[in-house]
Fold this sequence. Notes:
- By secondary structure, the chain is an alpha+beta fold.
- It has 9 helices and 9 strands.
- The mean pLDDT is 86.
Amino acid sequence: MDKVFKALADDTRRRLLDRLHEDNGQTLGELCERIAMTRQSVTQHLAVLEAANLISTVRRGREKLHYLNPVPLHEIQERWIDKFERPRLSALGALKRRAEEAMTDKPSFVYVTYVASTPEKVWEALTDPALTAAYWGGRNISDWRPGSRWQHVRTDGPGDAVVVGEVVESEPPTRLVTTWVDPRNEGREDMCSRVTYDIAPYEDIVRLTVTHEDLWDEGALSDISNGWPAVLSNLKSLLETGRAMPQKPWLMPNR
Length: 255
């Protein structure tokens, strides 16, 4: 938390966070447009924000997009604000939703987690039917080639697919992009979202960034904002301990 307070103490870094709050997912060039300093200086400020986990980055082609990460701000809220003035201050609780708006009119969600594993094992956990069944409650089935269909099939009940889509990009073991739609709405572009998995190795760990874009409404954003952290935490547990959590984390009630 010391890194967070240090990062927030600088006016330029606060302005960069404001820029991302206004329009999340910007390139370095876009962030430099209204700040009177060199690209090198802005890059240094962004590095401080990323070290404090206040922003996360996702590569898309040659571009590097910067996203506001509201989790440390929420932790500050819980530690320094909620216990003193919970009845009066609820604005920070809504920051996560506002900060994850897409560059388009549709909302999006970005989640970053770090796993003590290898890119190959993380890729396998995302694409292997048996492993996804172990931590996700459903099997991800596809040949994972660009243009192929994929489906998430429940392990309980009749085995119906609850999510389907198309593989857009597949670069094992570092990047996977798929469309995402309820089977009942297959073929409807307005109900189709997009999920990107970016897997970045760093010595003995992996940073997994999941970006869920083009969500059709705020209700969908609320659902996946609860679902993705639970699923990815279970993936992390499986890879690091050899077993998933004893209970399904997505069934835990919100309080």
